Amino acid sequence: MRRKLLLGNWKMNKTSAEAKEFALASRDLVNLAHQNNIDIGVAPTYLSLATVKENADPKMIVAAQNVHFMDHGAYTGEISVPMLQEFGIDWVLIGHSERRAYDNETNQKCHDKMAVLLANNMVPVYCVGETLAQFEAGQTKEVVSSQIREGLADFTPEQVKRLVVAYEPVWSIGTGKNASTEIAQDVCGYIRSILRELFGEVAEEIRILYGGSVKPENIKAYLSCPDIDGGLVGGASLKIDSYSGLLTNIL
Ligand code: PEP
Q1: pLDDT in tens, the chain (251 residues)
Q2: Which residue from 10, 17, 196, 31 is spatially nearest to 96, judged by alpha carbons?
Q3: Cβ neighbours of residue 87 closer than 8 Å, sequence gap 6 or more
Q4: Is CB count within 10 Å lower at the N or C end of the chain?
Q5: Cβ partners under 8 Å of residue 74, min gap 6
Q6: Cα-Cα-Cα-Cα dihedral of 237, 240, 241, 245, to 10°?
Q7: What dihedral do alpha carbons 179, 112, 99, 148 form, nearest 10°?
Q8: Hey, is 48 helix, strand or coil?
Q9: Per DSSP, which regions of 65-223 are E strands?
Q10: In 3-state terms, what secondary structure has residue 239?
Q11: H or E element in which residue 98 lies
């Protein structure tokens, strides 16, 4: 039985002071989530990772939004796995569509980053999804298939047990245009079938999230789908009331 997972992606939002306020306000929520067998977390900016870790309930998952695949070196503007580990951060978003679009994050780069994370017993949240043009051209499954196959190439079933996959159609991120639950389930089911082909029965343990304009009002419908185990939520995770609504609507 896969535990439900609710993860907020704060993107480039919140100062450390704002992140601290949210972290303190989220303490009861995190306990409520755990009493109901739900994992809950947020992905703050690098500068707020330690603040959230220190001020939220220890059960709160605190994820970085990116990491470099090298441990150290001449990579201006980057941070590494040992730097995250120093603060007890062991979850990382990989291949978010905004990074794929603005930072040339290829499937190969995602693969290299996930290889380092998995070797360090950390949890990658691997984001996949098609653009609007690809959706309209009927290429969704082709795109998602290459993202999964190239991103996860050569990993073992034992390694990918820890992996989380997030299906986020790019055309629905921050646009208010949701993928219907039928589309979301169809693609998430397809992703699980590829994971099954690549890794066997471990595929049943891998959590697959849907992301794209998820809100308190629609989250329950997504989580009622057999292959959707949770949500990766941007805008609606920024305010504590709405974050709380996301959780209480899936209890
Ligand atoms: C995201 O950033 O991963 C996301 C899904 O954003 P939003 O919920 O705002 O569409």
Answers
A1: 899 999 999 999 999 999 999 999 999 999 999 999 999 999 999 999 999 999 999 999 999 999 999 999 999 999 999 999 999 999 999 999 999 999 999 999 999 999 999 999 999 999 999 999 999 999 999 999 999 999 999 999 999 999 999 999 999 998 888 899 999 999 999 999 999 999 999 999 999 999 999 999 999 999 999 999 999 999 999 999 999 999 999 99
A2: 10
A3: 49, 50, 53
A4: N
A5: none
A6: 50
A7: -10
A8: helix
A9: 91-94, 123-128, 164-167, 207-211
A10: coil
A11: helix 97-102
**Which is nearest to 127 in space by CA: 166, 173, 91?**
166
**Apex CA 212: angle with CA 124 and CA 30, to 5°?**
60
- How remote is the CA of residue 2 from the centroid of ligand 1, in Å? 22
Q: Is there a contact between 127 and 166 (Cβ–Cβ < 8 Å)?
A: yes
Instruction: Count other Cβ atoms within 10 Å, centred on residue 211.
Output: 26
DSSP 134: H
- 18 counts as catalytic: no
Torsion (CA) 81, 161, 101, 89 in degrees, nearest 10? -30
Ligand 1 in reach of 9 Cβ (< 6 A) = yes
The kind and range of the H/E element at 63 are: strand 61-64
| Mutation choice for ligand 1 from 5, 6, 7, 9, CB with most ligand atoms inside 8 A | 9
SS3 state of residue 68: coil
**Locate tokens 């603040």: which residue?**
51
